[in-house]
Amino acid sequence: MQVFSRFCTFLLTVCVAGSACAAEPSLELDIGSTQQLLTRTELLAKPEARAIDVPNDVAYHRSMHYQALPMSVLLHDMPADANVQFTATDGFVANIPAKLLLGAGQPWLAIETDGQAWPPLKADGPNAGPFYLVWLAPEKGHVSQEQWPYQIGKISLVLPLESRYPQIQPDSKAANVLRGLHVYTANCSSCHPINGGGDAAVGPDLAVPHSPTEYFRRAYLRALVRDPASVRNWSQRVMPSFSTDVLSDTQLDDLLAYLKQMSKQRK
Description:
By secondary structure, the chain is α+β, with helices and mostly antiparallel strands. The chain folds into two domains: about 25-160, Sulfite Oxidase, Chain A, domain 2 (Alpha-Beta Complex), CATH 3.90.420.10; about 160-265, Cytochrome c-like domain (Cytochrome Bc1 Complex, Chain D, domain 2), CATH 1.10.760.10. The protein has helices spanning about 1-25, 40-45, 70-75, 100, 140, 160-165, 175-185, 210-215, 220-225, 250-265; strands at about 25-30, 35-40, 50-55, 65-70, 85-90, 95, 105-110, 130-135, 150-160. The chain has a five-stranded mixed sheet. Strands 3-4-7-8 form a four-stranded antiparallel sheet. Helix 7 (about 175-185) packs across helix 10 (about 250-265).
């Protein structure tokens, strides 16, 4: 009886230990010739990992302290003209040029440790873990707030969004419309597709079945971008505000010109 009891205890211990190992957060990397699944422990064990302080954290809106790894460690063989895709577990997808990740903005991969869980982003909600792209000098790289993806599950090398989804390219060659395309890819494409093209599906398509330039008066559409809650608000709203510090008035004008053009090209 004692032998059987000890055997059952042993099996329970193995099962619990196995579950713990299986549950450890892992990051999938698909960077050119590098295809890996790295656990949190493996990432934190790299000699370049260290503690950092992020003074103006975009997700938490305050100073934050993290254990982190320089992105250059993961992107060491990345060509400067490449495009890097960060896929979050909630469906958010950020496509960031490698030249930005290898530039002056100082990007780091923040890693949530087993002994110190990060706070929730909203009351009773999830946090930014287990992996979060943060920047120590975002102003030097002109980093958009949408280029701080959190809850990252996968980092991969992909072609630029415009190459993979030609339907997002405007027929017009007007300078403001082309600038608007770049505003869209940097700030909107992480949540919104357009004309059925894009990686993310967190927010609605910005052209199909109708463009917001068609069903919003211009003043209200501008207000929606600047402060979504001032136009429509509900408990599940996730769209952030885009202040003039993040998106200038000229950039917003360019974005609206692009959206208006894309409403004429609806597929």
